[in-house]
Amino acid sequence: MQNLRNKIAVVGVGTTKFGRLPDNDSYDLGVMALKSALDDSGMKIGDIDGLIVNRIPDYQRFAEITGINPRVALVTPGQGRMSGATIAAAAGLIAAGQATTIALVYGNNGRSAGATYGGNGDSYGGGGVGPWFPYGMTSPGAAHAIMFQRHAHLYGTRSEQLAAVSVAFRKHAMLNPDAVMQTPITVEDHQRSRFIAEPLHILDYCLINDGGVAIILTAADRARDYAKPPVYIRGFAQATRLKGSSLPPNDFWYEPMQKIAGDIYRMADVKHEDLDALMIYDNFSPTVLFSLEGFGFCKPGESGDFVQGGRLELGGQYPSNTDGGHLSNSYMQGWALNVEAVRQLRGEAGKRQVKDAQLIQYMCAAPVSSSVIYGSEA
What we know:
The protein has helices at residues 26-41, 59-66, 82-95, 110-113, 140-155, 159-173, 187-192, 254-268, 285-294, 303-306, 325-328, 335-346, and strands at residues 8-15, 50-54, 72-76, 101-108, 195-197, 200-201, 211-219, 231-240, 277-280, 359-364, 368-375. By secondary structure, it is an alpha/beta fold.
């Protein structure tokens, strides 16, 4: 894997507006995002010879709409855990010579379509937890609530510490003109907000919205031919915890994250202290704590204290989810966080820019855990 360090680069990114967009289906949103990414890179649609769509039902229909005949065409499951895995798969395809330039396109009209996350009508998950519905495990939120309860029981972690995550990401969203949520919040606001699955408040939950995201990858030796400075993939890795995964794991997915950490920091040749910012998959605020522990930024049980005092805010040690993340920008299932990493490394983040950012890590804690480390230089 070390031989693949900096061999693949991001040369174009694009996003749509996020929110309620009832006039557009997932194909529309994907097409708009891809057009934005092509404009960003200076490419033409004919330059794309690989296509992977996510949350868009059919790669064939999408290719037909956009008028391309890619050498490689795939669709990956519409789950947030798949964004990092899909980026890794595309990097591997390019490294293997199966394609030279791959467009990763995500389109989600879930808010307007009334998509549900959990319960009998869940069109998002695989239905594997159905037998546990009578016990209250009817949604991803319920699963993360019980995980946080266990963390609190083992380590004394408090809801006020989750509030530090929500407040930090909302501060960043207020600097992002495209973020869905712009209203400032305090720890007290978080604690007063209503419970959804106790002990998780509504401000611990991601924002279900419509939107599209596109990322264009190519081989590093081609990357400087395009309009924007390339952002290099220094490392990528994934691992799973699928056996017995119908119920939340007792170890908060530490095992797969620790495997990834052992691989990715070696591949990228970086240490924690080298990283300038983090993009942490935040479908729920406890996932941020689990990720920081699983990837070794702090010891198990210490993440509640770790996230306090502004450590995740701009100007802190590890500014995180600088676009507002899933909690305050929009739940684009990891894709927008990867775009934010690219924009930060290009210096395009405006008021939320991390000064002199050169290395940024994306990480996702889930049954399929993954991580990507991006660098501004080869």
